[in-house]
From TrEMBL:
Organism, scientific name: Klebsiella pneumoniae
Gene3D superfamilies, per database record: Periplasmic binding protein-like II
Source species taxonomy: Bacteria, Pseudomonadati, Pseudomonadota, Gammaproteobacteria, Enterobacterales
InterPro entries: LysR-type_TF, LysR_subst-bd
Record's protein name: LysR-family transcriptional regulator YbdO
Keyword terms of this UniProt record: DNA-binding, Transcription, Transcription regulation
CDD domains linked: PBP2_LTTR_substrate (cd05466)
Domain LysR substrate-binding span(s) in chain numbering: 34-195
Family: Belongs to the LysR transcriptional regulatory family.
Length: 210
């Protein structure tokens, strides 16, 4: 049983799934996770084997390790008429934006970090549906914000362009968590070792110049 943040699609997720699928009589079930509090309960009551979170869990019964550091990118459609001129915060601030409506405290922290340069009047479209946000970025000249792993996953299909401006947003750390008693499970510890060793390969390789 695996839980993780909504929209978390690490590039090397296939490594984990392949390892699991090769085990006889094993079924894989994935659920979205929205709060760190529910993650603690899932692990405490042994309702999950692995939990990926965007905030660390501080619990003596839980082993919590940093797994990935994720960037947040400003993105537009590949055919955006001004994409080549969007090279500074000042030029970006003149554009109009999408806004993802969510109660997730980590996403809200990233959104609030743009207050210094993003005029709220320039937020032209808001939605609590991330797929709708993606569609608006893809079909209009609006700018949106995506985690780098999601950009890397969908940009070949949706023809999105990452705007190359450094330090727009704080990085997000993804943590891998499991119950301390699970450290006695040879298969699970082997899987975690593989994931931790492959996490460098899981960092998305995106091309700002596309």
């Amino acid at each position: 049983m695996i839980y993780g943040p909504p929209l978390f699609c690490s590039v090397n997720s296939h490594v984990m799934i392949n390892q699991l699928c090769h085990q006889a009589n094993l079924q894989i079930e994935h659920h979205n996770l929205t709060t760190t509090e529910s993650a603690e309960e899932l692990l405490a009551y042994r309702q999950a084997d692995l939990v990926f979170t965007r905030m660390p869990i501080t619990n003596r019964a839980t082993i919590c390790q940093p797994y990935q550091t994720v960037q947040t990118l400003a993105v537009c459609r590949a055919g955006h008429p001004r994409r080549e001129t969007l090279t500074s915060v000042e030029s970006l601030a003149q554009e109009f934006f999408t806004h993802y409506i969510t109660n997730d405290p980590v996403i809200q922290r990233v959104q609030q970090s743009s207050i210094a340069w993003l005029n709220p009047r320039n937020i032209a479209f808001r939605s609590d549906s991330f797929m709708t946000i993606l569609n608006m970025i893809n079909k209009t000249d609006l700018i949106g914000f995506l985690p780098s792993y999601l950009y890397d996953f969908i940009s070949p299909t949706m023809q999105l362009h990452a705007i190359n401006i450094d330090n727009l947003f704080p990085d997000i750390t993804i943590y891998i968590n499991y119950h301390h008693a699970s450290s006695q499970n040879h298969f699970l510890t082997e899987l975690i070792t593989i994931l931790m060793n492959d996490r460098e390969a899981s960092r998305p390789q995106f091309n700002h110049s596309e």
